[in-house]
Amino acid sequence: MSLRQRLLLLFSLTVAAAVAAVAWTVLVRIRYVFEQRDQEETTLFVSQFQREFQHRSAEVATAVDHLSASERARGMAFEIVQSGDASPYLTEAQTMAQDVQLDFLEIVGPDGNVVSSAQWPARFGYPEPAAADPAQAPFLKREDLPDGSSSLGLFVVREVHGAEPAVRLVGGERLDQTFLADLPVAPGMQVGLYSDSNATPNQSSPPDASTNITTAFDPKRLVGPSGDVPGAARYQKLIEEARKSGQQTNGILYLTDRREDSVNASAIPLKNQAGNVLAVLTVAISRSGMVEAQQHIRAIAYGVAAAGILLAIAFSLWIAARVSRPIEQLAHAAEEVAGGNWDVHVPEHGRDEVSVLARSFNHMTKQLTSQRERLVQSERVAAWRELARRLAHELKNPLFPLQLTVENLVRARELSEEEFDEVFREGTATLGTEIANLKTIIGRFSDFSKMPKPELERIDAKDMVARAYSLYANAGNHDDAKIRVETETSDEPMPLMADPELLHRALSNLVLNAMDAMPEGGRLTISAHPRGGKVEICVADTGTGITPEECERLFTPYYTTKLHGTGLGLAIVQSVVADHAGTIAVESRVGGGTAFIITLPRAES
Amino acid sequence: MLRRFAISCLLATLALPAAARTRPHYGGTVRVKIEGDPWQRPDGLPRRLIFDGLTTLDRDGTVRPALAVEWESESGDRRWQFRLRPGVHFHDGSPLTAVAVVASLAASCAANCPWNAVHAVGPSIVITGDSPMPNLPSLLAGGQFLISLVLTADGKTANGAIGTGPFQLTGFNNGVLTLAANENCWQGRPFADAVEIRVHRLVHDQWLDLGVGRADVVEVPAEQLRQAQEQRLTVAESSPATLLALQIADSGALANPTLRAAIALAVDRGALFNVIFQKQGEVTASLLPQALTGYSFLFAADRDLNKAHQMRGGLATPPLTLSADQGGAMQLAAQRIALNLREAGFNVQVVGTGTQHSDLMLRKLPLEGGEPAAALEALLRSAGQTPPVVEQTSAALFKAEREFLDQKTLIPLLYLPRAYSSSGRVRDLQLFPDGTPDLAGVSLEDAP
C-alpha cells in the first residue's frame, strides 16, 4: 500500500471515527432524553389512572350506598329476612343496576348466597365470597359471565340498611375499554388493558372469580380504548413477565419490522386484595419521534462523514503533492537503482528532511556510478591481463618446440645431407604439428568470441540424449581405463524449443569434461526428465569431483581445473543454456563425482 | 196489594238492567297482545280461532265430534273412518270435503305421522296405519292437525289461512293480525265481531297496554303469574299445559347413556321451580302429570349431584351446547341448567335460540289433554320421538313411560300452566285444554 493510500485511509478513518463518535454520543443522549420523557409520561399516566380508579371507586361506592339506603332495597331485605323466600327478587338486581347504571350488581342473602345477579341471573343460590366483608375498600375482581368469559370490575360491598341478619349488595363497574377511553391519553401514547380469562369453566365448584387463574396469553384479550390494540401479540412477553412477577415491567416492543413502529412499553399489573394479578395495564409510547430524530442525526452523520472523507481525499492529495511525491520519486529512483540503472537523479527542493534524503540519494547514486565505472575498467584490465596470460601460456607451449625445431634445422645444415634430410623431415613434421596446435588454440578463442544466435526448432530432449550417447558411447574405452556411458530418459515426451546443434555442442562439452574427470574410468550418465513445465538434462560422472570453491568459479571464462584446458568450455555451455532461457547448475563433492544439470523450459504442445 | 205490586214492579224494573248485563253481548273487537309467532304450531293463538279439528277435547279431556261427526275403527285400530260433518264451509265459501281434509292432513303431517295413509271415501276420510292407532281421535283434536284449506276447488294453492273456525283472517298490517267473526260458522257466530292480535309485543308492554286500556287479553307467562296476582290482574290460568323438558341428543358426545343419566341427576328442578318459574306449575320427573296418570310421584325428581359425579366417573366430555326455546325465562333456565351441569363436571355453553344440532335443548312441549295414552303419544310426537304402542292401562302406560325415560333422551323438569290476563270489558274468558284462549266464547262488556 502506497504512502498516498495510507494517508488517504488514515485521514478517512480519522474523519469517520470522529463523526461516528459524535453521532453515537448524540444518539445515546437523544435516546436517554426520550426515555426519560417516556418514563415521566408513563408515570403521569399511571397516576392519572389511579386517580380515575379512585374516582370510579367513589362512584361505585356512592351508587351502592344509594341502593343500600333506598326504600326499595330495605323493603326487599325485610321481606327476604322475614319470609325467607328470596325468589320474588330474582330480577331485582337487574332493575337496581339499571337504576344506578352499574355494570355488576348482586344481592346476597343472609346465608351468603346470591339472591339476584344482574350480570348472571342464573347464578342465584350460589355463594358470593366477596360479600363476606362489607367494610372493605373498593377492590378489583374478575367476574365470570354466562357466556363463559369473564370481565374485570371494580367492586364495592355494602349492607342494606336496617336488615338483620344482613342482606348485602355487591356492586361494580366494568373495567374495560370504556374505562380506558375516559382516561386522558397523551398523543403518541397507546394504552391497553389485558385481563385474564377464566374461559375454562371451573369443573368442580360453583363459579368464583376471586381466584387468580393464569391462563395462556391471548392477544384478543388486550383491548384499547377503541377496541383491539395493534400488534397485541407483541406484548406477550412483557405482559407475561408482569403477570408472573407482579411488578411493573418495561421494555421496547417492535410492533412491525420497521423501527419507527416500536414503542417504549410498560406493563403494570392490577391486583386484587389478595395480591393476585387480575389484569395488566399496558402503556406504550411511540418511539417514532426518537427514531426519526436518530435517523435524521444518522443521515447528517453520514453526510458529514462523506464530506470528511472527500476532504480527506483532497487533503491527502495535497499532502502527497507536498510530502509523498518526493518520497515516491525517491522510491522510484531506488527501484531503478535496484534494477541496475544507477544513472538516476531525483529533484531536490527545499531544505526539509525529504530534500536532504534526495540529496543523499543523488550523492549515493553518483558514487555508485563512479565506483562501477572504476570497477568495470579494472575488471576489463584484469580480463585483458588474464587473456594475455592465457594466450601467452597457450601460445608459449607450441612456440617452444617450434623454436627448438627451427634451431635444430639451422644446426642440421652442418650435418650430412642424409642426416639433414632426416632432421628436416622430422622438423617439418614437428612444425606442422605445432602450427596445427596454434590454429586449434586460435580457433577456440575465435569460437568463443563468435557464439552464433540459436536457431530454435522443436526437438525432444530424448533425441539430444540419444545423439550424445551414440557419439560418446565408446569414446571412453581405453586400454587402461574403461568408462561406461549410460542414459536415463523418461518415457513421456519432453519437447524443447532449442537449437539442436548448439545444445549438442553444450552436451558434448559436458560429456568430454566428465570423461576428463574420470581418468581411472567410471560411469557417465546422461539423463533427461520432465520437471513440471521444464525439462532437466543431467550429465553426471563418478570422477574425482570438485570443491565448492571451484564450483563457484567453474563458469568463469578462462577458468579451468584441467592442465591443458582453455577455460572456455563451460563458459560456452552456460552461454548456450542462457540463450535457450535455461539455467545450469553443478552438484559435486570431492571423490563423489560431479553432476551438471541443465534446466530448459518445456515447449508448449 | 197495589202497593206491594207497585214495589214488585219497581224492583223488577231495577233488576232488568242487571239481568241484561249478565247476558253476553254480540259485537265489539277483542284486542289481544302476544309476544311470539301467532302461527307457531301447534298452539299459536289464532290457530284455534280460525281452524277446527276433526275432533275436539272438552274440558275434562273427552273426545268430542267437531268437523267429524262420527268415527269408527277396524282391524285392531289400524283403519279409521271419519265421517265429515255436512254443511260446513271454509271461510272462502268452499265446502268442507273429504278431499280438502285429506290434503290438509297430508300437509300438516310431513314426518313422524301417526298414520301411513289417508284418503277420501265419499263424505268420509279413511286413515290407515301399519300399527294400531288407538289414540287417533284424540290426536286429531290436537293443534297439529287442525284442518285448513290447502287447495281451492280449482286445484290451486289457497292464499292465506282459511279454515272453518269462528273467526276468519281478514288482514295483517303493521304487526296486527285482524280476524273477523265467521257469520256462518258451524258452531255458531262468536260474540265478538272481530279480534285484533298484535304480535311480537313484549309482555311488559302488553301489561302496560292492559293497564291503560289498550289491550283486552294479554299473555301472562308462568314465571310472572305471581306478579300478576300481586298486581291483582284478572288471570285465566290453565291446568298444566306445557312440559318443560331437557332433550338430550343420544349421539355424539352424549351417546353414552350413563352420561345422559348423570346430566338428568345434575339438574336442580327445585331452583327452576322455586325461583325462575316462581313456584308455578309443578316439579316432575315424569312425562304426564300426576292428575292424569296417578303414578307421577314414582319418578324421582330430586337432584343427586354426588351420584351424577359417580356416574360421570371422570369421563371427559367435550364442551356441550345447550339451546333453549324463546323466552327470557327459558334462557335463564338454560343458564341455570348449564351451571348445574358445570357442577357435575360438564362443560356446557348456552347458545342462542335457533341453533341447530345442539347437544342439549331446553324445550317447552305442549301437553294436551285427553286419555293418558293419547296425551303421552301426542307429547312424544311433539318431541320428535316415536311413541310406543301402549295399552290403555295404567300399568302398561307406566311401563312404557319408564322405559322411554330410562333412555335419558328427554328429561322432564316442570309442568307449567298457560295464563292470560283480561281487561274488565272481557267476559267469560276460558282457555282450551292446550292453554290457548277461547276467544269465540268471549264477549265484551261494552259491546253495543
What are the key terms here?
heterodimer; A: 605 residues; alpha+beta; Beta-Lactamase; Heat Shock Protein 90; 6-stranded antiparallel sheet; 5-stranded antiparallel sheet; B: 448 residues; D-Maltodextrin-Binding Protein, domain 2; Dipeptide-binding Protein, domain 1; Dipeptide-binding Protein, domain 3; 7-stranded mixed sheet; 6-stranded mixed sheet
Ordered list of secondary-structure elements with their pairings:
The complex is a heterodimer of chains A (605) and B (448).
Chain A: H1 3-69, H2 71-83, H3 92-100, E1 104-108, E2 114-117, E3 139-144, E4 150-159, E5 168-174, H4 177-181, E6 189-195, E7 222-224, E8 227-228, H5 236-245, E9 249-254, E10 262-271, E11 277-286, H6 288-338, H7 353-412, H8 417-449, E12 457-460, H9 461-472, E13 483-489, E14 495-498, H10 500-516, E15 522-531, E16 534-540, H11 548-553, H12 569-579, E17 583-589, E18 593-601
Parallel strand pairs in A: 13-15
Antiparallel strand pairs in A: 1-2, 1-5, 3-4, 4-5, 6-7, 6-11, 7-8, 9-10, 10-11, 12-14, 15-16, 16-18, 17-18
Helix pairs in contact in A: 1-6, 6-7, 7-8, 9-10, 10-12
Chain B: H1 2-22, E1 29-33, H2 47-50, E2 55-57, E3 63-65, E4 68-74, E5 79-84, H3 98-108, E6 117-121, E7 124-128, H4 136-139, E8 167-173, E9 176-181, E10 194-198, H5 203-211, E11 217-220, H6 225-230, E12 234-237, E13 242-248, H7 257-266, H8 269-276, E14 282-283, H9 290-293, H10 305-312, E15 320-324, H11 328-343, E16 348-350, E17 360-366, H12 372-382, H13 394-406, E18 410-416, E19 419-422, E20 426-427, E21 443-444
Parallel strand pairs in B: 1-10, 1-11, 15-16, 15-17
Antiparallel strand pairs in B: 2-3, 4-5, 5-7, 6-7, 8-9, 9-10, 11-19, 12-19, 13-17, 13-18, 14-18, 20-21
